[in-house]
Amino acid sequence: MSEAAITESKVLDALRSVMDPDLRRDIVSLNFIRNMKIEGGTVSFDVNLTTPACPVKDRLREQSRQAVLDRVPGVKDVRVNMTAEVRRPPAPETGRIRGVKNIIAVGSGKGGVGKSTVAANIAASLARSGAKVGLLDADIYGPSIPIMMRSKDEPEIKDQVIQPVNAHGVKLMSMGYLSGEMPLIWRGPMAHKALQQSLLGVNWGELDYLVVDLPPGTGDVHLTLVQTVPVTGAVIVSTPQDVGLQISMKTLRMFQQTKVPLLGIIENMSYYVCPHCGGRDEIFGHGGAALAAESLGVPFLGEIPLDPAIRKHSDAGMPVVLAEPESASARALAELTGKLAQQVSIQAFRSVPLTIVEE
Amino acid sequence: MLTAPEERATPAEIRKKSGESITIRWVDGHTSTFAARYLRGRCPCAQCVSETSGERLVSEEHIRPDIALEAARTVGNYALHFSFSDGHTTGIYSFDYLRRICPCEECA
């Protein structure tokens, strides 16, 4: 067959056989294919994914390459360039933070499950994959993110707008900044105002993801968040024991009641690997979160070991995914962040735009 | 993942007809039209429903017939907020609640 027979439509037809496993549609109808060039027997194009943290990126690249090689006669070489553009879910315009595409709430049933550590690592991991990320520490009872992200700076205020602090490529704001050294002894209405200011009064700029670290449990801050901005979805962090005690379930139901989609459950402190003998000890039991997720029909995003390195790097101000990206714990965190980003993409495709049409 | 009961209380389209009414078409295909006075008389806020007994304190017969729906906006993903011409603005009507109080003959 002559080289002239290679056409754009033949290549697109071949690529229709490649499915995005999460969105369950082929990559052509999802409009992922960009910048196609055909030069002689060489075909090149971009595959524009919905998140740079996509865990199936390499698989899609290989499938795309193979599909064109196998199905389009005359093709000798295929160059696939993987790009990403985070899509914004169609949510109401009112109350939206301008420039912020997705808001991910990180909650837990009780304190001490490592929620803030997980939130900091998710934010850092998303940023490391190339996404534009903000992190809002809304844990009024114990704002700890500034320590974990080693940001000693206080945010500047320009024209009454708070400028977030840059920490490891993540734009950071903490409700702790609003009170300085004083403890946050706030009644509901004060917490409400402070959170609104931290969401809407901050110059976030363009963000693919804004990760919000919530206080443990359910309360004023949670309600203000879901009433002030359209939250793309929520993640629940729990320990195996916590799920056994059904505490996380309350937080989960709160999100369900306020129509915040559940992006998944993460089991933290899942097991302990002894540094001396290498033996694995399941201190708090194991697998509770996966079982709970299954029975609720919520994605289980992964388990994180109880690893002294995670704590050590958090205390030193650099999330383990940046400090020791090749460690087992960092890989577990990066992998679950990828799954989380997939769930956000699915949500963005699934949600129906919610606006009030005035007649 | 939308299960059947969630679909019932998920709006596909919301239309506001001047000050008169709000019409919601739900994902399951059902349509509900709420007149301003009907909604004002079923406000779920703590001033209209006793917080301790759950007893309704302000109901439809307390509301003037020419009440108007001045503004409506969405609350996060889960509810609507209305401003009425009598100055009342404290009710947050979740979509679950709105579907439960659908005034159509089929639902009533």
From TrEMBL, chain A:
UniProt keyword Transmembrane, yes or no: no
Any Pfam family: ParA
InterPro entries reported in the protein's UniProt record: FSCA_dom_sf (IPR034904), MIP18-like (IPR002744), Mrp-like_CS (IPR000808), Mrp/NBP35_ATP-bd (IPR019591), NUBPL-like (IPR044304), P-loop_NTPase (IPR027417), YlxH/NBP35 (IPR033756)
GO biological process per UniProt: iron-sulfur cluster assembly
UniProt cross-references to PROSITE patterns, sorted A to Z: MRP
Annotated binding of ATP, by residue: G109, K110, G111, G112, V113, G114, K115, S116
Function: Binds and transfers iron-sulfur (Fe-S) clusters to target apoproteins. Can hydrolyze ATP.
Family: In the C-terminal section; belongs to the Mrp/NBP35 ATP-binding proteins family. Belongs to the Mrp/NBP35 ATP-binding proteins family.
Summary of subunit composition and partner proteins: Homodimer.
Protein name as it appears in the record: Iron-sulfur cluster carrier protein
Record organism: Eiseniibacteriota bacterium
TrEMBL record, chain B:
Metal-binding among keywords: yes
Tree of life domain: Bacteria
Domain (Gamma-butyrobetaine hydroxylase-like N-terminal): residue spans on this chain: 16-99
Organism: Eiseniibacteriota bacterium
Keywords, in A-Z order: Iron, Metal-binding
UniProt name for this protein: DUF971 domain-containing protein
A molecular function (GO) term: metal ion binding
